[in-house]
Amino acid sequence: MKFLVINGPNLNLLGRREPAIYGNKSYAALCEHIKATAAALGIEVDIMQTNHEGVIVDAIQDALGKYDGIVINPAAYTHTSVAIADAIAAVEIPSAEVHLSDVDSREAFRHISYVTPVCVVRVTGLGFDSYSEAMKKLLAHLQNNG
Ligand code: DQA
Questions:
Q1: How high is the mean pLDDT of the chain?
Q2: Is there an atom of ligand 1 within 6 Å of 75 CB?
Q3: Active site residue 141
Q4: Rounded CA gap, 97 and 34, in Å?
Q5: DSSP 4-39
Q6: Are 134 and 119 contacting, i.e. CB atoms less than 8 angstroms apart?
Q7: Which of 9, 39, 90, 138 could pair with 51 as two cysteines, CB 3.0-4.6 Å apart?
Q8: 72-105 burial string, b = 16+ CB within 10 Å, else e?
Q9: CATH number of the structural domain spanning residue 108
Q10: What is the domain range of residue 115?
Q11: Which residue has its alpha carbon closest to ligand 1 atom 13?
Q12: Listing from the earlier edge strand, what are the strands of the sheet with 95-99?
């Protein structure tokens, strides 16, 4: 079982970016958390971060045939990107939407997610644990839907 974790814009600034919302821990620490979760679950994982919407679309397309699941925090593109949602729908790789913060209790524009309808799992508001929860739930989904 192999997952691709995609992190969108500004997540590389974790630790210094709005720490009251996103916490004090760095992006490198997030990657270690994801790798430790994958090891505990007995799965392989690749992790990427980009600030560019088209790079995310390319990564989703390139995932075809290589990954069993995608865990994606599209960051700000969550609320704007039809292209990312279309790419997830096109490849039909079971995907999990993740957010560090509780987007539904923040500004109204963050309540809209274009990717929710094309994802089988959604976890928000748990900080780094959003990723581990999403990975567990996505693995369970894949095991139950064989
Ligand atoms: C985020 C929430 C988004 O609204 C925001 O634009 C981000 C991060 C989160 O992980 O909480 O960049 O996806």
A1: 98
A2: yes
A3: no
A4: 14
A5: EEEE-TTGGGTTTS-HHHH-S--HHHHHHHHHHHHH
A6: no
A7: 9
A8: bbbbebbbebeebbebbeebebbbbbbbbbebee
A9: 3.40.50.9100
A10: 2-145
A11: 75
A12: 44-49, 2-7, 69-73, 95-99, 121-124
pLDDT, tens digit, for every residue of 83-120?
999 999 999 999 999 999 999 999 999 999 999 999 99
| Cα-to-centroid distance, 146 and ligand 1 (Å) | 31
Question: How many whole angstroms separate alpha carbon 29 and alpha carbon 4?
Answer: 17
User: Given the DSSP bridges, would you call strands 2-7 and 44-49 parallel, antiparallel or unpaired?
Assistant: parallel
DSSP SS3 for 10? coil
Indicate the residue type of 33. Answer: H
Q: How many residues does the chain have?
A: 146
Q: Determine whether the shortest distance from the Cβ of 122 to ligand 1 is under 6 A.
A: no
Tokens representing 126 are 């748990």
131 is catalytic: no
- As given in the structure block, the two tokens for residue 96 are 């999990």
Type of residue at 36: A
72 and 96 in contact (C-beta within 8 Å)?
yes
Q: Tell me: the pLDDT tens digits for 11-20?
A: 999 999 999 9
